[in-house]
Structure formats: structure tokens, C-alpha cells
TrEMBL record:
Residues 74-195 form the RNase H type-1 domain. Residues 1-68 are annotated as: Disordered. Transmembrane segments: none annotated. The lineage of its organism: Eukaryota, Viridiplantae, Streptophyta, Embryophyta, Tracheophyta. This is RNase H type-1 domain-containing protein. Residues 24-57 have a biased composition (Basic and acidic residues). One of its GO terms (molecular function) is nucleic acid binding.
Amino acid sequence: MRDHWSLPPEEAWRYTGPDWLLDGGKEPDLKGKRKYPGEEDRGRGGDGGRKGRDAVDPQRSGWSRPAAGWTKINVDGSYAEGTGKAGIGIIARDHKGVTIFTSWRALFGCTGAEEAEARACIEGLRLATQWSHGPVVLESDCARMVKALRAADTDKSDICFLIAEAREFGSTLPEWRVSKVKREDNCVAHELAQLARHNTSTAVWLN
């Protein structure tokens, strides 16, 4: 990134949402709240929508580092029923908390929140097969997806083919597991998914 943008020293970085980075490192207004159009329409299988909130510094959040040698990949899906727009966000970090890659992708023709969450898991595991050299923990705040990926039997829901695709990517890794994370501790992936949906954009950044 430094080849293209003038960035502050890494030790001075404080995560306040992807818009801060895209603005070229300008100091954000930490007192304001970020809310994206359609955020109130974000469905989550009966779990309720998630309102815009203050950006969170990951060093002060409840995110926990994986075991030594493991990579933790946090994923999130965003879907607005009112507009049909959707996006996914992914961030991968090692056991030292160092970012390996981040990604956000706009989804087209997405049928709902569950599909968005499933596609976030697929993309996270797909990128892991390319850029993570070792065992992987896939972390999501969607209980439905965590349960489906952990299940030993074949999924028979409307998104069964997406569950199967995610498992297929996982099977190519040396080892992988799935864990549930609280929504407030999945803030980076959440913000990236919102960015993708709001701006209809797609990108992958490698550390």
C-alpha cells in the first residue's frame, strides 16, 4: 500500500473503519457514528438488524488471537432487503495479530442474508487456500453458518450448495475449524462488508 499512498507508521495505526484508510489516512471523527444507507434493512435470519455504530479499535475489542501457527479469518455478510444490495468482508490475521489479507466484495443477485453470510465463508476459505500456509480458524458471527459448517450430515437447506462449496475449500487446507464470534467482536469484517455493499466495490489487499 505504501507504494501508492502516504501512510502513517504502522505502530500509529488505529482501526476506525475502512473509510479512514481509503481517505488516505486522514484523522477520523471518532465522536461520530457511521451508518450506511439500508443498514436498518439488514436481515439475519430472525436475529434482527444491526444499526450503525462507533468504529472499534480491534486492539481494544474482544477479538482473540489464534493459537501459534494458525490463521484466523473473520468473515461477515451484509444484505439490505430494501435494495437487494449485498456485500461480504474478510480479514485474516496470524497468531501475532498481524494482518495477512483483507478483502471486500459486492454481491449481485444475492437472495438474502443467509446467502451473503455463506458466500463470505466461501470467499474467506478460498483466499485461505491461496494465502494462508497452515491451519485456519474461520470465525463468523452468524450462528446459522457456524452450525451448518460444523454439522457432520449433509445440509438440505436452500443454500446447501454453498455450504458444500465452503466445506470443499476447507477440506483442501491442512486443518480448519469454525468458531462463533460476537457481532461486536467482528467489527473489521463487518465494516468491510458494509463498504462492499455501500460502494458496490471489490478488492483484495495482501500484507
